[in-house]
Write a structure and sequence with these properties.
By secondary structure, the chain is an alpha/beta fold. The protein has 14 helices and nine strands. It has a single domain, classed as Alpha-Beta Barrel (TIM Barrel), CATH 3.20.20.70. 44% of the residues lie in helices and 12% in strands. 45% of the residues are buried. The structure holds S-adenosyl-L-homocysteine.
Length: 351
């Protein structure tokens, strides 16, 4: 049996571990192991992307959702939710404001809201791409058919975020009602990849019923799938969901996993997520120090931000965008990093 430092070196050299080795790391890591992994991960990231931190402006354009995921604050059974949906013009205005502030990636995210047709989404995407051809558009609107993904891509969408949530079928069942399936989510991810999107998958750390074996399966799945992006944040309970009383995910395990993802997929674009910034006031800084290189500030109109509450106490729902921008620049400069306004494509797409 290898000790943990040895396993971390092995991962750095071979970009892979066996299932049992992953489990050992998750079950026995110390702060020393975690900081060692962070140092290695940061060096790997610096050698590829330098000290640049990419920013993505996220527009949360609707909190209507047909799904009923047990962990999520905008699930359809949450009757306390005050619903909203932005018009095409409002979505475009958010991007315009973002463009003027220097953003070159817009992430359009929502619940699975069937009132926007495939043609509606395509119209929004092509309007943004025609007006701002130097920008990337990322969609994060859930599970769709191959045909719909293909239409969005034709309209100009460059990237797609769809966290797989868990690669363990049994665990998936405990997080979602029966009509959703792990298989379909994975099918979506492969469709997106085949269509030429830069694709992001990912998990919540410490989601209810998750164990080390689940996370080991997630690592093996991601090794196999080779996403261009990975979204990882701690699970945080939302008071109006069935998981209201479940414990939050571990902050240090989240940081450790960020480093391990960086070592496994050195070129991956890895955000220090809003959930990480919510669980700890320095979460995003520590995320960057652990190997993350993306931050996703909110471009949604302040009036609706509090309504897109996936979990309790989400940060940055009060500030105007310009306040967020100043705050982020200050935070990143303070730790020796530099917020850049480049498009920030996966390195394999820039050569
Ligand atoms: N409807 C889109 C967007 C979902 S929200 C989709 O299906 O992809 C984006 C992500 O927020 C989810 O994939 C989930 O991983 C995360 N999330 C939802 N509820 C959460 C919670 N309570 N704590 C932490 N993250 C949460």
């Amino acid at each position: 049996m290898y000790d943990n430092i040895h396993l971390i070196d092995l991962l750095r050299n071979e970009n892979a571990l066996e299932k049992e080795q992953w489990i050992q790391l998750f079950d026995t890591f110390t702060d020393e192991d975690r900081l060692y992994a962070a140092g290695r991960a940061r060096a790997v990231c610096d050698s590829i992307y330098g000290k640049d931190i990419y920013i993505r402006g996220i527009v949360e354009f609707s909190n209507h959702c047909k799904n009923d995921c047990y962990y999520c604050g905008i699930r359809c059974s949450n009757k306390k939710l005050s619903l909203y949906r932005l018009t095409e013009d409002e979505i475009f205005e958010c991007c315009k404001e973002g463009y003027e502030a220097g953003f070159h990636t817009f992430v359009l995210q929502s619940g699975e809201d069937l009132s926007y047709s495939c043609a509606d989404i395509c119209r929004i995407v092509s309007r943004i791409k025609e007006t701002y051809p130097d920008c990337a558009v990322t969609l994060s609107i859930g599970e769709k058919s191959h045909e719909e993904y293909s239409e969005y891509r034709r309209a100009g969408a460059d990237r797609y975020l769809l966290r797989h949530e868990t690669a363990d079928e049994e665990h998936y069942r405990k997080l979602h009602p029966l009509r959703m399936s792990c298989k379909n989510r994975i099918r979506c991810l492969y469709d997106l990849k085949e269509l030429g999107y830069q694709v992001g998958c990912g998990i919540m750390v410490g989601s209810p019923y998750q164990d080390s074996s689940c996370i080991a399966k997630d690592m093996l799945f991601m090794r196999e799938f080779e996403p261009e992006m990975i979204g990882i944040g701690p699970f945080l309970p939302h008071s109006d969901t069935p998981f209201a009383d479940m414990p939050r995910g571990s902050y240090t395990l989240t940081l450790f996993l960020l480093s391990l993802c960086r070592l496994m997929l050195p070129q991956v674009l890895l955000p220090a997520t809003t959930a990480l910034g919510t669980i700890h006031p320095m979460g995003r800084e520590e995320g960057v120090k652990a190997g993350a290189n993306v931050i996703m500030p909110n471009l949604s109109p302040t009036a609706v931000r509090k309504k897109y509450m996936l979990y309790d106490n989400k940060i940055c729902t009060e500030d105007s965008y310009s306040q967020c921008k100043t705050c982020l620049n200050r935070r990143m400069t303070a730790i020796g990093y530099n917020v850049t306004t480049g498009r920030g494509d996966h390195i394999s797409r820039t050569i």
